[in-house]
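Revision sheet: structure tokens.
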Amino acid sequence: MLSAMGTEPRLRIMQLLLSAHPDGLVVGDIQEELNIPNSTLSHHLEKLRNEDLVRVQRESTFLRYTANSEALQELLSFLYSECCTRNKAIRPEEIVQISR
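Predicted:
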């Protein structure tokens, strides 16, 4: 998942979809906002979809993409439990403050 978000265009796509959560955006709106060529955007969206970071739903002739907030929450939980609690880098009360 981190690798899929590891390029600037895909990170920008994720930021945009999260800002439009939970409704998401159709491809044309993503393309217009980020100014990414259609074929390149399709490639990036497919990579994010393959990693289950985004979901897609067909609406007539449009594709609507939404951020998979459950997958992102699992990723954040993993990072917290594996990286922060073992060496006490972040105290649990700090996570509560961050999430507010």
